[in-house]
Amino acid sequence: MVDLLLITSLGFLGSFGHCLGMCGPLTAAFSLSRRSLPPNSQNSQTQQQFAQSTPSITSHLAFNLLLNLGRVLSYALVGAAIGALGSVLIAGGQLAGIDSALRQGITIFTGLLLVWFGLAQISPQLLPHIPLLHPFTQGQLHERLNRWMMRFSQSDQWWTPALLGAIWGLMPCGFLYAAQIRAAETGNPYLGAATMLAFGIGTMPMMLGVGVSTAFLSRDRRSQLFRLGGWVTLTIGLLLLLRSGDMVDYTGHAALLGLMVALIARPVSQVWSAPLKYRRVIGVGAFVLAWAHVAHGVDHTFNWNLQALSFLPFSQQIGMGAGLLALGLMTPAALTSFDAIAIKLGKTWRKIHLLSIPALLLAAAHAVLVGSSYLNTVGGVAQRGKALGLGLAVLVVLLMRSRWVWSLFSLERLYVAARK
Protein backbone atom coordinates (compact mmCIF):
# COMPACT_ATOMS: atom_id res chain seq x y z
CA MET A 1 0.00 0.00 0.00
CA VAL A 2 2.86 2.36 0.84
CA ASP A 3 4.46 1.62 -2.54
CA LEU A 4 1.21 2.52 -4.32
CA LEU A 5 0.94 5.77 -2.37
CA LEU A 6 4.53 6.62 -3.31
CA ILE A 7 3.82 5.87 -6.97
CA THR A 8 0.68 8.03 -6.83
CA SER A 9 2.66 10.86 -5.21
CA LEU A 10 5.34 10.44 -7.86
CA GLY A 11 2.74 10.72 -10.61
CA PHE A 12 0.99 13.70 -9.04
CA LEU A 13 4.00 15.82 -8.14
CA GLY A 14 5.97 14.75 -11.19
CA SER A 15 3.10 15.82 -13.43
CA PHE A 16 3.68 19.46 -12.44
CA GLY A 17 7.04 19.25 -14.15
CA HIS A 18 7.58 16.56 -16.74
CA CYS A 19 3.95 15.87 -17.75
CA LEU A 20 3.04 19.55 -17.87
CA GLY A 21 6.00 20.31 -20.12
CA MET A 22 5.85 17.25 -22.39
CA CYS A 23 2.13 16.37 -22.54
CA GLY A 24 0.44 19.61 -21.45
CA PRO A 25 0.66 21.22 -24.91
CA LEU A 26 -0.69 18.01 -26.46
CA THR A 27 -3.67 17.98 -24.07
CA ALA A 28 -4.41 21.63 -24.80
CA ALA A 29 -4.15 20.98 -28.53
CA PHE A 30 -6.67 18.12 -28.30
CA SER A 31 -9.15 20.40 -26.59
CA LEU A 32 -8.64 23.30 -28.99
CA SER A 33 -8.94 21.10 -32.08
CA ARG A 34 -12.27 19.71 -30.93
CA ARG A 35 -15.55 20.95 -32.38
CA SER A 36 -19.06 20.28 -31.04
CA LEU A 37 -21.29 18.92 -33.82
CA PRO A 38 -24.93 18.01 -33.15
CA PRO A 39 -25.08 14.27 -33.80
CA ASN A 40 -28.51 14.31 -35.45
CA SER A 41 -28.15 17.46 -37.54
CA GLN A 42 -28.36 17.03 -41.32
CA ASN A 43 -28.15 20.74 -42.16
CA SER A 44 -24.66 21.60 -43.40
CA GLN A 45 -25.08 25.28 -42.44
CA THR A 46 -26.05 24.28 -38.91
CA GLN A 47 -23.05 21.96 -38.72
CA GLN A 48 -20.74 24.75 -39.83
CA GLN A 49 -22.15 27.03 -37.15
CA PHE A 50 -21.60 24.37 -34.49
CA ALA A 51 -18.15 23.60 -35.86
CA GLN A 52 -17.13 27.22 -35.31
CA SER A 53 -18.59 27.40 -31.82
CA THR A 54 -16.77 26.88 -28.56
CA PRO A 55 -17.73 23.75 -26.56
CA SER A 56 -19.49 24.28 -23.25
CA ILE A 57 -17.62 23.84 -20.00
CA THR A 58 -19.51 20.59 -19.33
CA SER A 59 -18.70 19.04 -22.70
CA HIS A 60 -15.13 20.32 -22.46
CA LEU A 61 -14.74 18.66 -19.04
CA ALA A 62 -16.37 15.44 -20.28
CA PHE A 63 -14.02 15.32 -23.27
CA ASN A 64 -10.92 15.71 -21.09
CA LEU A 65 -12.23 13.27 -18.49
CA LEU A 66 -12.75 10.56 -21.13
CA LEU A 67 -9.37 11.40 -22.65
CA ASN A 68 -7.58 10.88 -19.35
CA LEU A 69 -9.62 7.84 -18.34
CA GLY A 70 -8.59 6.22 -21.61
CA ARG A 71 -4.97 7.10 -20.91
CA VAL A 72 -5.04 5.72 -17.35
CA LEU A 73 -6.82 2.54 -18.48
CA SER A 74 -4.13 2.09 -21.10
CA TYR A 75 -1.50 2.47 -18.38
CA ALA A 76 -3.22 -0.20 -16.28
CA LEU A 77 -3.43 -2.68 -19.17
CA VAL A 78 0.24 -2.16 -19.98
CA GLY A 79 1.03 -2.57 -16.27
CA ALA A 80 -0.83 -5.89 -16.20
CA ALA A 81 1.09 -7.12 -19.24
CA ILE A 82 4.41 -6.01 -17.77
CA GLY A 83 3.54 -7.57 -14.41
CA ALA A 84 2.67 -10.83 -16.16
CA LEU A 85 6.03 -10.75 -17.91
CA GLY A 86 7.65 -10.18 -14.54
CA SER A 87 5.82 -13.22 -13.12
CA VAL A 88 7.25 -15.36 -15.93
CA LEU A 89 10.74 -14.09 -15.11
CA ILE A 90 10.15 -14.87 -11.43
CA ALA A 91 8.99 -18.39 -12.31
CA GLY A 92 12.13 -18.81 -14.37
CA GLY A 93 14.29 -17.59 -11.49
CA GLN A 94 15.47 -14.34 -13.07
CA LEU A 95 13.42 -12.19 -10.67
CA ALA A 96 13.11 -14.68 -7.82
CA GLY A 97 14.13 -13.26 -4.47
CA ILE A 98 16.05 -10.15 -3.53
CA ASP A 99 19.30 -11.81 -4.64
CA SER A 100 18.17 -11.81 -8.28
CA ALA A 101 20.70 -9.99 -10.45
CA LEU A 102 17.95 -8.87 -12.85
CA ARG A 103 15.75 -7.58 -10.02
CA GLN A 104 18.60 -5.60 -8.51
CA GLY A 105 19.63 -4.31 -11.94
CA ILE A 106 16.07 -3.11 -12.52
CA THR A 107 16.07 -1.43 -9.12
CA ILE A 108 19.34 0.39 -9.80
CA PHE A 109 18.16 1.52 -13.25
CA THR A 110 14.83 2.73 -11.88
CA GLY A 111 16.53 4.55 -9.02
CA LEU A 112 18.97 6.29 -11.34
CA LEU A 113 16.14 7.21 -13.71
CA LEU A 114 14.15 8.79 -10.88
CA VAL A 115 17.23 10.60 -9.55
CA TRP A 116 17.79 11.95 -13.08
CA PHE A 117 14.19 13.18 -13.39
CA GLY A 118 14.25 14.65 -9.90
CA LEU A 119 17.43 16.65 -10.52
CA ALA A 120 16.16 17.80 -13.92
CA GLN A 121 12.92 18.97 -12.29
CA ILE A 122 14.68 20.76 -9.43
CA SER A 123 17.06 22.50 -11.84
CA PRO A 124 15.96 22.11 -15.50
CA GLN A 125 19.26 23.43 -16.88
CA LEU A 126 21.37 21.07 -14.79
CA LEU A 127 21.21 18.00 -17.03
CA PRO A 128 20.89 17.52 -20.81
CA HIS A 129 17.86 15.88 -22.43
CA ILE A 130 18.36 12.29 -23.53
CA PRO A 131 16.42 11.41 -26.73
CA LEU A 132 15.45 8.00 -25.30
CA LEU A 133 13.87 9.66 -22.26
CA HIS A 134 12.40 12.58 -24.21
CA PRO A 135 11.26 10.96 -27.49
CA PHE A 136 8.86 13.76 -28.40
CA THR A 137 11.60 16.35 -28.52
CA GLN A 138 12.56 14.78 -31.85
CA GLY A 139 10.90 17.09 -34.38
CA GLN A 140 9.65 14.82 -37.18
CA LEU A 141 8.21 12.15 -34.88
CA HIS A 142 6.48 14.80 -32.80
CA GLU A 143 4.99 16.53 -35.84
CA ARG A 144 3.70 13.32 -37.49
CA LEU A 145 2.05 12.05 -34.32
CA ASN A 146 0.57 15.44 -33.55
CA ARG A 147 -0.96 15.80 -37.03
CA TRP A 148 -2.51 12.34 -36.92
CA MET A 149 -3.91 12.74 -33.41
CA MET A 150 -5.24 16.24 -34.13
CA ARG A 151 -7.22 14.89 -37.09
CA PHE A 152 -8.51 11.99 -35.01
CA SER A 153 -9.56 14.27 -32.13
CA GLN A 154 -11.95 16.15 -34.45
CA SER A 155 -14.22 13.10 -34.76
CA ASP A 156 -17.69 13.65 -33.26
CA GLN A 157 -18.06 10.10 -31.85
CA TRP A 158 -18.56 10.01 -28.07
CA TRP A 159 -15.88 7.34 -27.63
CA THR A 160 -13.25 9.28 -29.59
CA PRO A 161 -11.54 10.92 -26.57
CA ALA A 162 -11.36 7.60 -24.68
CA LEU A 163 -9.75 5.85 -27.66
CA LEU A 164 -7.47 8.81 -28.22
CA GLY A 165 -6.40 8.65 -24.56
CA ALA A 166 -5.76 4.90 -24.84
CA ILE A 167 -3.45 5.49 -27.82
CA TRP A 168 -1.81 8.36 -25.99
CA GLY A 169 -1.10 6.04 -23.05
CA LEU A 170 0.91 3.72 -25.30
CA MET A 171 3.29 6.43 -26.46
CA PRO A 172 6.89 6.33 -25.18
CA CYS A 173 7.70 8.63 -22.29
CA GLY A 174 10.80 8.72 -20.13
CA PHE A 175 8.88 9.53 -16.93
CA LEU A 176 6.54 6.62 -17.65
CA TYR A 177 9.45 4.18 -17.96
CA ALA A 178 10.19 4.43 -14.23
CA ALA A 179 6.64 3.42 -13.28
CA GLN A 180 6.61 0.62 -15.87
CA ILE A 181 9.86 -0.80 -14.50
CA ARG A 182 8.34 -0.80 -11.01
CA ALA A 183 5.31 -2.62 -12.42
CA ALA A 184 7.60 -5.27 -13.92
CA GLU A 185 9.37 -5.70 -10.61
CA THR A 186 6.09 -6.61 -8.85
CA GLY A 187 6.04 -9.88 -10.80
CA ASN A 188 2.24 -9.96 -10.69
CA PRO A 189 -0.25 -8.82 -13.36
CA TYR A 190 -2.69 -7.45 -10.76
CA LEU A 191 -0.02 -5.57 -8.83
CA GLY A 192 1.48 -4.39 -12.11
CA ALA A 193 -1.89 -3.00 -13.18
CA ALA A 194 -2.40 -1.44 -9.73
CA THR A 195 1.03 0.20 -9.89
CA MET A 196 0.36 1.78 -13.27
CA LEU A 197 -3.20 2.68 -12.27
CA ALA A 198 -1.87 4.47 -9.18
CA PHE A 199 0.68 6.32 -11.30
CA GLY A 200 -1.99 7.32 -13.85
CA ILE A 201 -4.39 8.51 -11.14
CA GLY A 202 -1.58 10.64 -9.75
CA THR A 203 -1.09 12.36 -13.11
CA MET A 204 -4.81 12.92 -13.75
CA PRO A 205 -5.37 16.15 -11.78
CA MET A 206 -2.70 18.01 -13.73
CA MET A 207 -3.60 16.55 -17.12
CA LEU A 208 -7.30 17.08 -16.49
CA GLY A 209 -6.76 20.57 -15.23
CA VAL A 210 -4.37 21.88 -17.89
CA GLY A 211 -5.76 25.21 -19.01
CA VAL A 212 -8.40 25.15 -16.23
CA SER A 213 -7.13 24.50 -12.69
CA THR A 214 -3.65 25.88 -13.41
CA ALA A 215 -5.26 29.25 -14.15
CA PHE A 216 -6.15 29.47 -10.44
CA LEU A 217 -2.57 28.82 -9.32
CA SER A 218 -0.09 31.65 -9.09
CA ARG A 219 3.24 31.36 -10.86
CA ASP A 220 5.01 31.07 -7.50
CA ARG A 221 2.73 28.24 -6.37
CA ARG A 222 3.25 26.33 -9.63
CA SER A 223 7.00 26.78 -9.24
CA GLN A 224 6.83 25.45 -5.67
CA LEU A 225 4.86 22.38 -6.75
CA PHE A 226 7.26 21.83 -9.64
CA ARG A 227 10.28 21.74 -7.34
CA LEU A 228 8.48 19.78 -4.64
CA GLY A 229 7.75 17.13 -7.26
CA GLY A 230 11.44 17.08 -8.13
CA TRP A 231 12.48 16.52 -4.52
CA VAL A 232 9.91 13.73 -4.07
CA THR A 233 11.10 12.05 -7.28
CA LEU A 234 14.73 12.38 -6.18
CA THR A 235 13.92 10.96 -2.73
CA ILE A 236 12.10 7.93 -4.14
CA GLY A 237 15.01 7.27 -6.50
CA LEU A 238 17.53 7.42 -3.64
CA LEU A 239 15.35 5.14 -1.50
CA LEU A 240 15.38 2.56 -4.30
CA LEU A 241 19.17 2.76 -4.56
CA LEU A 242 19.68 2.44 -0.81
CA ARG A 243 17.03 -0.07 0.18
CA SER A 244 18.94 -3.38 0.27
CA GLY A 245 22.25 -4.68 1.54
CA ASP A 246 22.47 -6.93 -1.51
CA MET A 247 23.03 -3.83 -3.64
CA VAL A 248 26.53 -3.23 -2.24
CA ASP A 249 28.43 -4.95 -5.05
CA TYR A 250 26.06 -3.76 -7.78
CA THR A 251 26.33 -0.08 -6.92
CA GLY A 252 30.10 -0.39 -6.58
CA HIS A 253 30.53 -2.08 -9.94
CA ALA A 254 28.15 0.38 -11.61
CA ALA A 255 30.21 3.28 -10.21
CA LEU A 256 33.41 1.70 -11.56
CA LEU A 257 31.84 1.21 -14.98
CA GLY A 258 30.57 4.79 -15.08
CA LEU A 259 34.01 6.12 -14.16
CA MET A 260 35.64 4.05 -16.92
CA VAL A 261 33.18 5.24 -19.56
CA ALA A 262 33.63 8.87 -18.48
CA LEU A 263 37.42 8.56 -18.81
CA ILE A 264 37.35 7.12 -22.35
CA ALA A 265 34.56 9.42 -23.58
CA ARG A 266 36.83 12.10 -25.03
CA PRO A 267 39.52 10.01 -26.83
CA VAL A 268 36.95 7.72 -28.51
CA SER A 269 34.39 10.44 -29.33
CA GLN A 270 35.18 10.37 -33.06
CA VAL A 271 34.32 6.67 -33.12
CA TRP A 272 31.63 6.66 -30.43
CA SER A 273 30.18 10.10 -29.69
CA ALA A 274 27.47 9.27 -27.14
CA PRO A 275 29.70 8.98 -24.02
CA LEU A 276 31.23 12.42 -24.62
CA LYS A 277 27.80 13.99 -25.01
CA TYR A 278 26.74 12.66 -21.62
CA ARG A 279 30.18 12.46 -19.97
CA ARG A 280 29.38 14.79 -17.10
CA VAL A 281 26.15 12.97 -16.35
CA ILE A 282 27.92 9.60 -16.44
CA GLY A 283 30.68 10.89 -14.17
CA VAL A 284 28.30 12.44 -11.65
CA GLY A 285 26.18 9.28 -11.80
CA ALA A 286 29.27 7.23 -10.92
CA PHE A 287 29.88 9.57 -7.98
CA VAL A 288 26.29 9.14 -6.74
CA LEU A 289 26.56 5.36 -7.08
CA ALA A 290 29.85 5.43 -5.18
CA TRP A 291 28.14 7.19 -2.29
CA ALA A 292 25.28 4.68 -2.48
CA HIS A 293 27.91 1.92 -2.31
CA VAL A 294 29.41 3.51 0.82
CA ALA A 295 25.98 3.87 2.42
CA HIS A 296 25.17 0.23 1.69
CA GLY A 297 28.43 -0.91 3.22
CA VAL A 298 28.10 1.18 6.37
CA ASP A 299 24.46 0.25 6.94
CA HIS A 300 24.21 -3.37 5.85
CA THR A 301 27.76 -4.72 6.14
CA PHE A 302 28.93 -2.94 9.31
CA ASN A 303 25.54 -2.03 10.79
CA TRP A 304 26.99 1.43 11.57
CA ASN A 305 29.61 -0.16 13.82
CA LEU A 306 32.70 1.42 12.27
CA GLN A 307 34.92 -0.06 15.00
CA ALA A 308 34.52 -3.37 13.18
CA LEU A 309 36.88 -2.03 10.52
CA SER A 310 39.83 -2.66 12.84
CA PHE A 311 39.01 -6.38 12.91
CA LEU A 312 39.21 -6.79 9.14
CA PRO A 313 42.24 -8.47 7.55
CA PHE A 314 45.02 -5.99 6.80
CA SER A 315 44.53 -6.31 3.02
CA GLN A 316 40.86 -5.39 3.36
CA GLN A 317 41.72 -2.42 5.57
CA ILE A 318 44.04 -1.19 2.81
CA GLY A 319 41.22 -1.75 0.32
CA MET A 320 38.83 0.31 2.46
CA GLY A 321 41.35 3.12 2.61
CA ALA A 322 41.82 2.99 -1.17
CA GLY A 323 38.07 3.22 -1.66
CA LEU A 324 37.75 6.27 0.59
CA LEU A 325 40.65 7.97 -1.20
CA ALA A 326 39.00 7.24 -4.55
CA LEU A 327 35.75 8.79 -3.35
CA GLY A 328 37.66 11.82 -2.09
CA LEU A 329 39.35 12.30 -5.48
CA MET A 330 36.01 11.98 -7.31
CA THR A 331 34.35 14.62 -5.13
CA PRO A 332 35.94 17.80 -6.56
CA ALA A 333 35.34 16.55 -10.12
CA ALA A 334 31.66 15.88 -9.37
CA LEU A 335 31.16 19.22 -7.63
CA THR A 336 32.64 21.15 -10.57
CA SER A 337 30.73 19.37 -13.34
CA PHE A 338 28.73 22.44 -14.33
CA ASP A 339 29.24 24.94 -17.14
CA ALA A 340 29.41 28.01 -14.92
CA ILE A 341 32.08 26.49 -12.68
CA ALA A 342 34.02 25.10 -15.67
CA ILE A 343 34.17 28.58 -17.24
CA LYS A 344 35.23 30.17 -13.97
CA LEU A 345 37.99 27.62 -13.28
CA GLY A 346 39.44 27.67 -16.81
CA LYS A 347 42.46 25.36 -17.22
CA THR A 348 42.26 24.38 -13.57
CA TRP A 349 38.99 22.58 -14.32
CA ARG A 350 40.77 19.96 -16.46
CA LYS A 351 43.42 19.41 -13.79
CA ILE A 352 40.71 18.78 -11.24
CA HIS A 353 39.00 16.24 -13.49
CA LEU A 354 42.29 14.43 -14.15
CA LEU A 355 42.03 13.32 -10.51
CA SER A 356 39.55 10.77 -11.86
CA ILE A 357 42.48 8.71 -13.19
CA PRO A 358 44.05 7.92 -9.79
CA ALA A 359 40.49 7.59 -8.47
CA LEU A 360 39.91 4.76 -10.97
CA LEU A 361 43.11 2.99 -9.91
CA LEU A 362 42.22 3.27 -6.23
CA ALA A 363 38.61 2.18 -6.84
CA ALA A 364 39.81 -0.89 -8.73
CA ALA A 365 42.22 -1.72 -5.90
CA HIS A 366 39.35 -1.34 -3.43
CA ALA A 367 37.17 -3.72 -5.46
CA VAL A 368 39.88 -6.37 -5.74
CA LEU A 369 40.95 -6.24 -2.09
CA VAL A 370 37.51 -5.92 -0.50
CA GLY A 371 34.94 -7.17 -3.03
CA SER A 372 33.52 -10.64 -2.47
CA SER A 373 33.76 -11.41 -6.19
CA TYR A 374 37.54 -11.20 -6.50
CA LEU A 375 40.30 -12.46 -4.21
CA ASN A 376 38.26 -14.48 -1.72
CA THR A 377 39.56 -18.01 -1.29
CA VAL A 378 36.17 -19.70 -1.70
CA GLY A 379 35.80 -18.76 -5.36
CA GLY A 380 39.18 -20.13 -6.39
CA VAL A 381 40.54 -19.62 -9.89
CA ALA A 382 37.30 -18.21 -11.33
CA GLN A 383 37.16 -15.41 -8.78
CA ARG A 384 40.83 -14.57 -9.25
CA GLY A 385 40.16 -14.46 -12.98
CA LYS A 386 37.64 -11.69 -12.31
CA ALA A 387 40.32 -9.71 -10.52
CA LEU A 388 42.59 -10.12 -13.53
CA GLY A 389 39.74 -9.07 -15.83
CA LEU A 390 39.13 -5.91 -13.83
CA GLY A 391 42.83 -5.09 -13.94
CA LEU A 392 42.88 -5.53 -17.72
CA ALA A 393 39.80 -3.31 -18.09
CA VAL A 394 41.50 -0.53 -16.13
CA LEU A 395 44.65 -0.94 -18.24
CA VAL A 396 42.61 -0.68 -21.46
CA VAL A 397 41.01 2.55 -20.21
CA LEU A 398 44.42 4.07 -19.49
CA LEU A 399 45.85 2.95 -22.84
CA MET A 400 42.87 4.38 -24.74
CA ARG A 401 43.64 7.79 -23.28
CA SER A 402 47.14 7.72 -24.82
CA ARG A 403 47.70 9.15 -28.31
CA TRP A 404 50.86 7.02 -28.58
CA VAL A 405 48.84 3.79 -28.29
CA TRP A 406 46.50 4.90 -31.08
CA SER A 407 49.50 5.75 -33.27
CA LEU A 408 50.91 2.22 -32.79
CA PHE A 409 47.86 0.89 -34.64
CA SER A 410 47.90 3.70 -37.23
CA LEU A 411 44.66 5.07 -35.77
CA GLU A 412 45.97 8.41 -34.56
CA ARG A 413 43.60 10.25 -36.92
CA LEU A 414 40.69 8.88 -34.88
CA TYR A 415 42.11 9.98 -31.55
CA VAL A 416 40.53 13.09 -30.01
CA ALA A 417 42.94 15.11 -27.90
CA ALA A 418 41.94 17.32 -24.99
CA ARG A 419 41.24 20.97 -25.70
CA LYS A 420 43.99 23.31 -24.62
Automatic annotation (TrEMBL):
Domain Ferric oxidoreductase, first and last residues per copy: 257-363
Family annotation (InterPro entries): Fe3_Rdtase_TM_dom, UreH-like_TM_dom
Keywords: Membrane, Transmembrane, Transmembrane helix
Transmembrane segments: 6-32, 72-95, 101-119, 158-178, 190-218, 225-244, 250-269, 281-298, 318-342, 354-375, 387-406
Major subcellular location class: membrane
Domain of life, per lineage: Bacteria
Ranges where the Urease accessory protein UreH-like transmembrane domain occurs: 8-238
Keyword set includes Repeat: no
Membrane topology: Multi-pass membrane protein
Assigned GO CC terms: membrane
Entries under Pfam families matching the protein: DsbD_2, Ferric_reduct
Keyword Iron: no
Subcellular localization(s) per the UniProt record: Membrane
Protein name: Sulfite exporter TauE/SafE family protein
